[in-house]
Amino acid sequence: MINRPQPDEYSTFAARYVDLVGNGPILEILEYQQQSTYNFFVRMDPGKAGYAYGGSKWTIKQVLGHMADSERVFAYRALVFSHESIELPSFDQDVYMEKATFNTRSLEDLANEFKTVREASLYLFKSMTDEQTTQKGIASGNPVSVRALAYMIAGHEMHHIKILKERYL
User: What is the mean pLDDT of residues 149-154?
Assistant: First the structure.
């Protein structure tokens, strides 16, 4: 079981994601999201997938691709920090988006990728000991625990799904 992280286990910026997650078991939340988010995207009209609500805003495909990329980064950090306490570089989402090819892919393909990335994250977190989940490292210049990263994955997804529902659909 992965317990909820304490406020000193993540940055003020990350709190906006952690705070979105309820007090339920995080692995169950992540499993639920895996299917619900997959369903959200595959049931969406593919004709809307290229829509962006503003000139500099990402398309729906780009948001989904960003969600998968961010989860990969968070899970990598969790893997590293569960074994060693080191410093890892920041993740500039805009730099990643500049080279991304999300808009050339189908929404279904991106949804399948997201589902697969989540499956890998679940295997990773399920394999960890309680001690490993409390290990910390430095990411983007801030201390963060492995369990905080699990909550950040869930909260980051909630954040983007909310924006999609409010501004895109």
Answer: 98
| 2: in domain | no
Residues 6+ apart with CB under 8 A from 102: 59, 61, 62, 64, 65, 66, 110
Note whether residue 140 is domain-resident: yes
Q: Is residue 1 part of a domain?
A: no
- Residue 40 and residue 43: Cα distance in Å, rounded? 6
Cα(153)–Cα(72) distance, integer angstroms? 9
pLDDT score, position 1: 87
In this model, does residue 133 exceed pLDDT 90? Answer: yes
**CA dihedral defined by 108, 110, 111, 114, rounded to 10 degrees?**
160
Residue 82 has pLDDT above 90, yes or no: yes
| pTM across the whole model | 0.97
Domain hosting residue 134, numbered range: 7-168
Tell me whether residue 82 is exposed, middle or buried, using C-beta atoms within 10 angstroms of its C-beta: 0 to 12, 13 to 18, 19 or more.
buried
Number of structural domains found in the chain: 1
Is residue 106 a part of any domain in this protein?
yes
Question: Containing H/E element for 138?
Answer: strand 136-139
